[in-house]
Amino acid sequence: MTDIAHLPFTQRFVHELPADPKTDNSLRQVLRACYSHVQPTHVARPELLVLVPEVAALIGLDPEPTKELVEVLAGNRIVDGMAPYAACYGGHQFGTWAGQLGDGRAITIAEVTAPSDGDIWELQLKGAGPTPYSRRADGRAVLRSSLRELVCSEAMFHLGVPTTRALSLVLTGEPVQRDFLYDGHPKLEPGAVVCRVAPSFLRFGSYEIHSAREDQETLEKLVRFTLAKYYPQHIANGQMDIAGWFDEVMRKTAFMVSEWMRVGFVHGVMNTDNMSILGLTIDYGPYGWIESFDLDWTPNITDASGRRYRFGAQPQVAQWNLAQLARALSWLVEDLDPLRATIDAYAREFSSLYRHTMLRKLGLVAHAQHATGDDDLLTDLGALLVEIETDMTLFFRYLAEPNPSLVTLHDAYYAPDQITAVQRAQIERWLMAYAHRVRVEGISEEERRTRMDSINPLYVPRNYLVQEVIEATEAGDRTQLLELLDVLRRPYTQQPGKERFAKKRPDWARHKPGCSMLSCSS
Fold first, then answer.
1. 63-72, 114-123, 365-374, 424-433: which has the minimum mean pLDDT?
2. What is the rounded CA–CA span in Å between residue 422 and residue 31?
3. Total-model pTM
4. Cβ within 8 Å of residue 436, ≥6 positions away
5. pLDDT tens-digit map of 120-136
6. Catalytic residue positions, numbered
7. Per the domain annotation, does 242 fall within a domain?
8. Last residue of a domain, one of 205, 226, 260
9. Which of 399, 424, 453 is the last residue of a domain?
10. Mind listing the pLDDT tens digit for each residue in 234-269?
């Protein structure tokens, strides 16, 4: 382990891709470039709230915070070997091409070569000040959104969902004005900077921007860089296998979304500029966690009317986004049929992954001879979860109890006393069908529970829990955030004394901002 000034920095992105010739932070259209050199903006009184030890170890950083480290993580200091930049990209937002977007408040300060395995990690400060891509914004972020990003990215990692990571959270000591509900009542909130960590933050929009500008030269340079660094199996002797690469991106994306559905995560803003080329969950904005199972729920107040990014639509949105990436890549291929075939194959890929995942959530293994019965079992369960307000996370944990019954499942329902006689009969019939399928599987109740508890989490970053931590942190409490992060490190294991982290959403949180709906105003 070493201090921040002596990490083994590398700058592949900066050295190998075309740069914006201007080096100031002024707003502008950036043409024929993949990034702009920028400098973070100094903040007044940085205070380190969290340094995630596992992520520090990942990059070989000494987890003992020093004044120099806090200054770097706040954006106040750049050490030798760093070359800060903001990336240029575009994107489709809510289905409409939005033109140039770019890192409007995110600044990559360095790439670090991990001493343990040679992997390269990008360190990115979010909320570190304006860049050429900030448009009309200030480049800052508030504590509310920064804390949410740190908590969720680390929770997702421990849940086993492909994700970026978070190294740190720093208060800036400077207020930031935001209109949280977009209702014309802005207020000052504490400012913060979160340090995000990933192999790369390249996203679909990174390629779309050059395609939209008919800049084939820059597009090809970026694709070659991507294949050489992250998909070397798809480039040899200078020849790029773009179709094969796109197929792999499709499969990574399908797996990522199937994992979202498994744990009940709703991204909230699946624009193409928020889709990772590596199949990672990136840009934790107005995300939310399914508490009562609702395929139509979206956490994003901006999406409240159209619900484009609702929970149940995420698989289809991912396919649409992949089609936009394919359109961008079409500039570099002569035969479009393989790209079209990959887009068509997405539905089969996702369906297969999701079906397998849902059976695993029930402690079952897919067998061809049970295909029809399993499909009926899953379809009937889905209908029950939709019809009766059910806490998704608790339902599958309680279902893992030996010989589950209505009594076993009682506390998974939000209004158990209002379940009708007809619904009770439907649940009991489903439980009988499920018990029969378990017997056919030939596993003991102990084995079934072990299987189910290994894939169905008990602890997730529930919307109301995170909001409680935000409010406590804003009030000066520095302990609740650390406690929540610690619980979320072991999401599948019951932890004595942590029962309050595994409870249904309370009634007060049903419609409270921050617990039910969120905005992009971070």
1. 365-374
2. 63
3. 0.97
4. none
5. 999 999 999 999 999 98
6. 273
7. yes
8. 205
9. 453
10. 999 999 999 999 999 999 999 999 999 999 999 999
